[in-house]
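Researcher: Here's the sequence for the chain we discussed earlier.
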Amino acid sequence: MTDEIPAETMWEGRFIKMVKQGKWEYASRSRGIGAAVIVAITDADEVILVEQYRVPLGRHCLELPAGLIGDVEAGEPLVEAARRELEEETGYRAGSIEPLGFFHSSPGMVSEGFTLVRARNLVKVGEGGGDAEEDITVHVVPRATLPDFVARKRTEGAAMDVKLLLLLSDALLA
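Model: Thanks. This is the structure I predict for it:
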């Protein structure tokens, strides 16, 4: 079995590293950094999404708000990181954050996973848009029109984050 073969770090940067273990090569997060992905739905049944340019894709990508845990301060609690990232990216503050579970998005290529959280009792407190190095566009979309919104963004050339499937499953499987 491959798990009996020691993993060898082939290259490591500030946020990611490339690992080889037997015949497998994969990407992993450095320094124990985690990720939180936030499902934020307003009291008016609107989904809060973000769109930003993603260098690996070479284009804008439509996504759920998300961010790293422990990238600035080791040991940062999940709920604090999710709350911080939601407000920074979207301008919305959550009254509560509920962890929904840990998931892997591409387990054959990366070891990274993310904790999905639900943000409740949202209050608009700012414009969002991310930090000085980010250029995030915030979209507040009625859930009933989400499939049409996603289709339009695809037509415009935007990439789609796999985590959007969570919100699109009813429309895709109907």
